[in-house]
């Protein structure tokens, strides 16, 4: 009887641990789902309080990359730079990077293989949301570009509001 009672207590304890772990995972899953549906991707810059300061288009005319200076939130709670990709075939927007407004600038360089985000602030001030992006082409194929960052000693952009 002692062995059966001990096994019963162990199995009951193990069952409670598994039940607690399952509930915890379910709560985390629902929280992440709610976060992604409500907060994860902000409004595209065309409907937010943003001004384009630089634009680059891919050589295959499948996508366009913008640097915007934005103010978001009530009473301009957040001000900074945002790098956005517009997939031209389906008019989809994807945010690639953000940086708070600081003494410095942010710019982009686009070539056949990668998008380089240049910045003059500290690397910790740049938040890169995606290390690459994929966009559809008019001929039915798709193209991929990687996203890299490069720190500059001095800002080279001459766009208004984007100088040191």
TrEMBL record:
What are the UniProt keywords, alphabetically? Membrane, Transmembrane, Transmembrane helix
**Highest taxon listed in the record's lineage:** Bacteria
Whether Membrane counts among this entry's keywords is yes
- Transmembrane regions: 14-35
Q: What is the protein name given in its UniProt record?
A: Uncharacterized protein
